[in-house]
Amino acid sequence: MQAERVLAGLDPEQRAVAEAVQGPVCVLAGAGTGKTRAITHRIAYATLTGVMAPQRVLAVTFTTRAAGELRGRLRRLGAPGVQARTFHAAALRQLSYFWPRVVGGEPPKIIESKISLVADAARACRLAFGRTELRDIAAEIEWAKVTQNRPEDYAGAVATAARKMPADVVDVARVYAMYEQLRRERNLLDFEGMLELTAAVLTEHREVAEQVREQYRHFVVDEFQDVNPLQKMLLDVWLGDRDDLCVVGDPNQTIYSFTGASPRYLLDFTRDHPDAKVVKLVRDYRSTPQVVRLANGVISQARGDAARRHRLELVAQRADGPDPVFNEYDDEIAEADDVARRARKLIEEGVPAREIAVLYRINAQSEAYESALAAAGVPYVLRGAERFFERPEVREAVVRLRGAARAGADAETDGTGLIQTVRHVLSGAGFTDRPPEGSGAVRARWESLAALAQLAEDIAADDPRAGLPQFVAELEERAAAQHAPPLEGVTLASLHAAKGLEWDAVFLAGLVEGTLPIIYAETPEQVEEERRLLYVGVTRAREHLSLSWALSRSPGGARRRKPSRFLDGLTPKTMTPTPARADRAKRRAGKGPQPCRVCGRPLTAAIERKLGRCEDCPAELNEELLLALKDWRAGIAADQRIPAYVVFTDATLQAIAERTPENLEELATIPGVGKVKLDRYAEAVLSLCAGER
Q1: Cis peptide bond upstream of 324, omega within 30
Q2: Whether the Cβ atoms of residue 420 and residue 460 lie closer than 8 Å to each other
Q3: How far apart are CA 193 and CA 188, in angstroms?
Q4: Among candidates 538, 492, 489, which has minimal Cα distance to 511?
């Protein structure tokens, strides 16, 4: 009966995956089609029916976060003994276990980052590189190693792959050779060497291979389109002559070829395993029909082997939502400002900040959005910054929660007990119900603690009986997997970093030729990978989706840029300017950026444009009015139970206190005071400006 309950609620294709309990199985799963649900239910069903023993299953993923999510789902489905690990974690575990027996002596130290050793190698070769170049050379060494190219083969492999080099190819090859020499001399092992050495140990020591194959008889590999030659070699060694293998992937989401990943293992799976069962998952449960229609439109224009052999057309399962929005701007500053304004509007309308993302092609594009969001008073989180569980305030909070759990600090639970207990413990670390004013370290600390408090609410909603010990256990498992709870802020991330994630609202920004596709994409294969990046970006959105581009880089610059070719045939026939763009056009008549109202200098910084003047230009500030405005704002925020910045940002209040508007028209000219704010707050603000209390 428990096994049958595992199958309940699956759609026909997901159920076909779950019931295919013996390999080989190939699951072609489109974005948002429930692939994790399908494979976890497959494993649980197989273990509950006795086809597989839980301890004999190895599920392989590409990130510790994904592995942690797999383990959590399997535990809840009644299959807690299944091993779910990354390739590197599984290899390190096996290598550490067998090292004393087959090698002996001091085991090598694992290199977390190659950059310092690459720098030493460059110096030994009498070459000088900056940190950016060193990082790029380290990436080249990783590519060479995963594609099994030695230093002496590197130059030829680069020419064949048509790779863009960070330095002279001969110099990179010399650094690569010296890197390997220093690594051996210092008894160090990088992640690629870890996989290679594990495969070598299993190949050269038959008794070790037999023991590993006895331990793991059933394999599941997620994101199979991202497997590289080195990982495939290790997987083949693990399998031996068996074929009890289930692979899951989406050729439309192959976006890591530059790192050595190859979709051919997924595309050729049925050639390697002619008797494989193939199941396609195409029912999209994530996105609205409008988003799905655009995603299908993007990928329908794809060319090449992946598109020809395994085209997946998604079928939307959700109710209708708003149409995707396409916006064109004069310059990148205008684009960032309007994205920030619209993100704030979504937050005011009830979309949580953590359910909004701004995605771009390269990390350098984030700066404009950081500035614009900060000026608009919108909290944001940079994906790829410091690891959540390594933050001092998070470590302190976990220690406090662990101690409280040991002391039996659980409240009587009726579904709210866990929430109250966690908030009480976190208050000792500085957590308050209301966020602090402003930004910076204090705000960042509060947001970290708020994420833990929100996680307690999420867990209590899933299981009202959960107590503090269960919450602490969840935290420790998440810390081990680096599976951070979502922070309360708009996510800023590159398209590559966004893969595997999803949000209610997504802004795809900077969609111009030369950026997407990137200027370095020259071959047809490279251009197609850039198209798949846009597809990945579109399919991150559940409901709200915005695509935008700017015609020039800077305010007042020549408007020579063109929208990405990938948007051809997808944008509306006619496009009207956004309100913000139309307002700017009237204000400055298309003649350059907004001028300072004091000295006339063009304003480019977001905070300056909000104030309407240079930061160092003199301005009369009515300090009494500013204090009154802040007191009024605090009262409104408390009454409405919203952050103060949602009412008005500090910069907007300062601009009001400097200009002291006397009527609606004057108040409406202040950046940050839109129609919604005028309707809600104009009467009160104008009364304060007139000296009334």
Answers
A1: no
A2: no
A3: 9
A4: 538
What single-letter amino acid sits at 123? R
End-to-end CA, the chain: 69
Per-residue pLDDT band for 437 (boundaries 50, 70, 90) equals low
The dihedrals phi and psi of 110, each to the nearest 5 degrees, come to -80, 130
What is the largest distance, in Å, between two alpha-carbon atoms of the chain? 88
Residue 353, token pair as written in the block: 């900040």
- DSSP state for residue 39 in the 8-state scheme: H
Q: What is the mean pLDDT of residues 284-301?
A: 93
Q: In angstroms, rounded to a whole number, what is the distance separating the alpha carbons of residues 485 and 487?
A: 6
From start to end of 417-569, where are the E strands? 490-494, 503-508, 541-552
Closest CA relative to residue 594, chosen from 579, 578, 573, 580: 580
Sorting pLDDT into bands at 50, 70 and 90, what band is 180?
A: very high
Cis peptide before 618 (omega within 30 of 0): no
Contacts 24+ apart (CB under 8 A), 617-626: 619/658, 620/658, 621/654, 621/657, 621/658, 622/657, 622/658, 622/660, 623/657, 625/656, 625/657, 625/660, 625/688, 625/689, 626/653, 626/654, 626/657
406 alpha carbon, distance to own chain's centre:
35
Q: What percent of the chain has pLDDT over 90?
A: 38
| pLDDT tens for each residue of 220-239 | 999 999 999 999 999 999 99
| Calpha distance 581→327 (Å, rounded) | 10
Q: What residues form DSSP beta bridges with 277?
A: 25
Which amino acid belongs to residue 79? A
The C-alpha angle with vertex 676 and arms to 674 and 682, in degrees rounded to 5, equals 80
Tokens for 420, please give them: 């109250």
Scanning 376-416, the segments in alpha helix (DSSP H) are: 392-406
pLDDT above 80 for 30: yes
pLDDT (tens digit per residue) in 234-253: 999 999 989 899 999 998 88
pLDDT digits (tens, 9 = 90+) for 385-416: 556 777 788 888 888 888 888 877 654 444 45
CA 25 to CA 296: how far, in whole Å?
Answer: 25
Q: CB count, 10 Å around CB of 174?
A: 19
CA 225, CA 211: separation in Å to the nearest integer? Answer: 29
Within a 10 A sphere around the Cβ of 259, how many other Cβ atoms?
A: 14
How far is it, in rounded angstroms, from Cα 266 to Cα 261? Answer: 11
Cis omega before residue 517 (within 30°)?
A: yes
pTM of the model: 0.73
Instruction: Report how far residue 354's alpha carbon sits from residue 374's, in angstroms, rounded to the nearest whole number.
Output: 15
Pairing mode, strands 277-281 and 25-29: parallel
As a whole number, the mean pLDDT across the chain is 84
Contact 649/672 with Cβ under 8 angstroms?
yes
3-class SS at 202?
A: helix
Burial class (CB in 10 A: 0-12, 13-18, 19+), 504: middle
Gap between the Cα atoms of 373 and 338, Å rounded? 10
Strands (E), 62-125: 83-86, 109-110
Write out pLDDT tens, residues 478-522.
776 566 666 678 999 999 989 889 999 999 999 999 898 988 888
Residue with tokens 């048509």: 162
Beta-carbon contacts of 255 under 8 Å, excluding residues fewer than 6 positions away, are 495, 496, 499, 529, 532, 533, 536
Phi and psi at 202, nearest 5°, equal -70, -35
